[in-house]
Structure to design on (649 residues):
C-alpha cells in the first residue's frame, strides 16, 4: 500500500485552472482519470486525512504512485479529454457505462445484397442498423412476427438462404407469405431492399405515415372491387396497429427525449434510462456501478452523460444509417454544476441544439417519477443479489494471502491451462482476474509447438516462459528502456502494453510438477515477486512449488471457490481455442485430396460454403464463384469430391 504523501505535489505547483488529471500506479498504469474546474482544489482534496476519504477513493490513492495533469482552456475541452482518456486507458477505478451485451436489439444487415432483420447481441458493426434495446429477446421476435406480414423481408441465415437458392424452393415463411422469397427470385434485390427500407422507417417512428398510406391503398382497392387485396391490406393495418400498441404512448406531443434517474447509497449507484422517440418508449437500459468518490445526484448525472453519450456517438459513427444517439432533450433529476458546458458538448455530438433540464410538471414529470421508481427497484434487487459479493471477494483474497503465505492479498491473479487431444492441436489459455473479477480484455491464448509432444509440464513451462519473457521485454528490463520511455507504456499510443503487468499470483492447472515447472521458469528469468500455485482437479488440492504435501483449503472457503472459478474459466477459454483449431484442421483435411489446392484456397472454400458437405452439393459454376477459384480448378474440386462421395457410398 502506497503512502499518498510520498507523491503529493507541492500545493503551489498545481495550477488553479480547469483541467484533467491522471493517477498512475507503480507500474505507470493509469488507475483513475478525472476532471475539475480547479485542479488545485480537486487534487488537494485527494491528499487529505485517509480516514476521512470515501472507501474507494482511499483505495485508489493508496494504489497510485504518481499524479499528473493537463490544463485546458474550457470545460467542454475538459469533458472531451476526460472521456478520451477513460476510453484509451480503461482505468480500473473509473466507471465505464458500456452497453450490457445481454441487452438484445433488432439488427438489420443493410450491407448485404438481401438485408435481413434478426435478434442480435454484441458490439456494433458497420453497415448494420440497430433498433432497441429491448428488455427481452421474445419481445423482438413477437414484434418481428407481426411486422413480417406487412414487410416480408427475409429473416433466414446466409447458410439457409444459400441452400434454398440451390434447391430452388422457398422455406415455410415463403409459403405463408411472411417472406418475399428473394432466394428463389420472387422479388429482385431492389424490390427486397424497398421492403426493408419501409420496415426500418416504421421502426424509426414513421408509423402514422405508413398506416395512412396503407389505408389509402385499401380504399383504392375497395373502389376497384379488389376485395381480396383490400382485406389483406386491412389485416396489414391491424398488424401494424398491434405492433404500435406494444410501445405505449407516454407523451402525446411526439417528444424525442431520454429520461434519466438514479438511486444510490454511499458505495454504489443505479441508473435507469428510458428512450422516448415520437412520444413512445422505444427502449430501456439500466446499470449498477461502484462510486469512486463521494458524489450526489448532480455529479452522477455529469459522469453518466459524458460516458454514455460519448460511447453512443462512437457506436453511431460505425453505423451512419442510425439516427443520432443524442435526443433533442435529456431529462435529468438534477442539473450538474457544469450544465452549460455539458449542453454545449451534447449539442456538438448531435449536430443541433440539445435541451438538458429537470422536468417540473405534467406528463414529463410523471414519466421521470416512473423512471425513478424503476431505478430504485433495480437498486434494491441488486442489493439483494450481491449483498455478500464484495465481502466474499475480499474474504477470498485475504484467505489466499493467509493460506499461501503471501506478503499481500493477490489483487491480480493469472491462470494457465493446457488443452489438447492425445498431443494434437496443443493450445494454452491465460486468463486474468483483478479484485476477484474476470478482466476479459487481457485474456491471451497460445498455440504451442516446442512442447507439443513433451507433455503438460513442458507445455506449462513454455507458456510461462513466453508470457514473462514478453513482460520483461515490454518493461525494458531485458534490453534497457529507451531514454525518456516509461516502462510498460507504448510510447506511440501511451497505452499499457499487453504483457506489461505481472500477476501477484500465477495459478497453473495441475499438481506439484506443473507448479514447480512454472516456478523454475520464473527463477530462470529472474522474477521473484510472483507467487505460484497449482490447483489439481481430482481432490481440488493446492500445490506450492517444491512442496511434498499440498495445501488443503476448507471446502467451504471463499479462497478455494475463487481458485476454482479462475481455473474453470481458463479451462473454458482453452477448450474453446482448441475446438476452433481442430475444426479448421478437420475441415481443411477433407480437401487434401484435391491436387493443386493450397491452404488459402481451402480456407476460402470452407468460409464460402460453410462446410465440406455443402461444398460437395455445389455445382461447378457455384464453386467457380469463390474468389481465387477458376473454372478449371472448380471442375477438379467437383470431380474429386464427387468421386469421394461415390466411394463413400
Amino acid at each position: 500500500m502506497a503512502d499518498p504523501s510520498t507523491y503529493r505535489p507541492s500545493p503551489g505547483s498545481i495550477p488553479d485552472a480547469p483541467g484533467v488529471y491522471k493517477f498512475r500506479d507503480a507500474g505507470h498504469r493509469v488507475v483513475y482519470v478525472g476532471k475539475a474546474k480547479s485542479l488545485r482544489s480537486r487534487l488537494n482534496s485527494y491528499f487529505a486525512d485517509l480516514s476521512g476519504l470515501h472507501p474507494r477513493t482511499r483505495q485508489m490513492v493508496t494504489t497510485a504512485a504518481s499524479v499528473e495533469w493537463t490544463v485546458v482552456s474550457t470545460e467542454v475541452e475538459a469533458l472531451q479529454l476526460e472521456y478520451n482518456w477513460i476510453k484509451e486507458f480503461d482505468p480500473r477505478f473509473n466507471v465505464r457505462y458500456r452497453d450490457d451485451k445481454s441487452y438484445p436489439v433488432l439488427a438489420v444487415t443493410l450491407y448485404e445484397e438481401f438485408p435481413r432483420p434478426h435478434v442480435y447481441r454484441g458490439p456494433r458493426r458497420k453497415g448494420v442498423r440497430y433498433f432497441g434495446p429491448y428488455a427481452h429477446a421474445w419481445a423482438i421476435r413477437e414484434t418481428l412476427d407481426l411486422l413480417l406480414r406487412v414487410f416480408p423481408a427475409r429473416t433466414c441465415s446466409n447458410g439457409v438462404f444459400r441452400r434454398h437458392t440451390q434447391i430452388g424452393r422457398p422455406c415455410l415463411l415463403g409459403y405463408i407469405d411472411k417472406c418475399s422469397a428473394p432466394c428463389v427470385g420472387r422479388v429482385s434485390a431492389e424490390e427486397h431492399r424497398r421492403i426493408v427500407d419501409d420496415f426500418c422507417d416504421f421502426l424509426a417512428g414513421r408509423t402514422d405515415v405508413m398506416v395512412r398510406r396503407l389505408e389509402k391503398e385499401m380504399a383504392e382497392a375497395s373502389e376497384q372491387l379488389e376485395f381480396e387485396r383490400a382485406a389483406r391490406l386491412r389485416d396489414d393495418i391491424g398488424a401494424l396497429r398491434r405492433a404500435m400498441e406494444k410501445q405505449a404512448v407516454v407523451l402525446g406531443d411526439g417528444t424525442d427525449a431520454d429520461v434519466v434517474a438514479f438511486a444510490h447509497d454511499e458505495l454504489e449507484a443505479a441508473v435507469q434510462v428510458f428512450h422516448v422517440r415520437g412520444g413512445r418508449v422505444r427502449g430501456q437500459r439500466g446499470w449498477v456501478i461502484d462510486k469512486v468518490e463521494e458524489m450526489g445526484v448532480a455529479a452522477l448525472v455529469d459522469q453518466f452523460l459524458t460516458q454514455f453519450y460519448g460511447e453512443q456517438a462512437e457506436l453511431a459513427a460505425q453505423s451512419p444509417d442510425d439516427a443520432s444517439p443524442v435526443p433533442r432533450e435529456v431529462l435529468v433529476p438534477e442539473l450538474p454544476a457544469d450544465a452549460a458546458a455539458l449542453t454545449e458538448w451534447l449539442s456538438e455530438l448531435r449536430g443541433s441544439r440539445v435541451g438538458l433540464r429537470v422536468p417540473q410538471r405534467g406528463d414529463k414529470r410523471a414519466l421521470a417519477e416512473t423512471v425513478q421508481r424503476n431505478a430504485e427497484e433495480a437498486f434494491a434487487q441488486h442489493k439483494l443479489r450481491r449483498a455478500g459479493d464484495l465481502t466474499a471477494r475480499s474474504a477470498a483474497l485475504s484467505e489466499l494471502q493467509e493460506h499461501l503465505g503471501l506478503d499481500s492479498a493477490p489483487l491480480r491473479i493469472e491462470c494457465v491451462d493446457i488443452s489438447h487431444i492425445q498431443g494434437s492441436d496443443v493450445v494454452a489459455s491465460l486468463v486474468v482476474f483483478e479484485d476477484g473479477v474476470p478482466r476479459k480484455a487481457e485474456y491471451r491464448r497460445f498455440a504451442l509447438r516446442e512442447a507439443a509432444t513433451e507433455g503438460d509440464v513442458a507445455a506449462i513451462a513454455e507458456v510461462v516462459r513466453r508470457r514473462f519473457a514478453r513482460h520483461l521485454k515490454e518493461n525494458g528490463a531485458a534490453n534497457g528502456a529507451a531514454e525518456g520511455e516509461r516502462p510498460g507504456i507504448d510510447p506511440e499510443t501511451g497505452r499499457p502494453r499487453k504483457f506489461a503487468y505481472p500477476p501477484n499470483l500465477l495459478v497453473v492447472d495441475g499438481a506439484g510438477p506443473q507448479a514447480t515447472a512454472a516456478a523454475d521458469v520464473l527463477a530462470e528469468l529472474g522474477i521473484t515477486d510472483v507467487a505460484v500455485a497449482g490447483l489439481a482437479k481430482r481432490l481440488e488440492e493446492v500445490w506450492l512449488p517444491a512442496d511434498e504435501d499440498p495445501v488443503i483449503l476448507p471446502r467451504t472457503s471463499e479462497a478455494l471457490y475463487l481458485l476454482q472459478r479462475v481455473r474453470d474459466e481458463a479451462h473454458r477459454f482453452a477448450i474453446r481455442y482448441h475446438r476452433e483449431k481442430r475444426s479448421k484442421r478437420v475441415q481443411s483435411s477433407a480437401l487434401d485430396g484435391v491436387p493443386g489446392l493450397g491452404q488459402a484456397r481451402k480456407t476460402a472454400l470452407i468460409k464460402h460454403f460453410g462446410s465440406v458437405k455443402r461444398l460437395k452439393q455445389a455445382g461447378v459454376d457455384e464453386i467457380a464463384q469463390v474468389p481465387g477459384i477458376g473454372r478449371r480448378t472448380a471442375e477438379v474440386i467437383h470431380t474429386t469430391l464427387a468421386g469421394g462421395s461415390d466411394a463413400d457410398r
The CA atoms of residues 154 and 572 lie 35 Å apart. The chain has six domains: 4-89, 97-204, 206-246, 257-385, 392-582, 590-648.
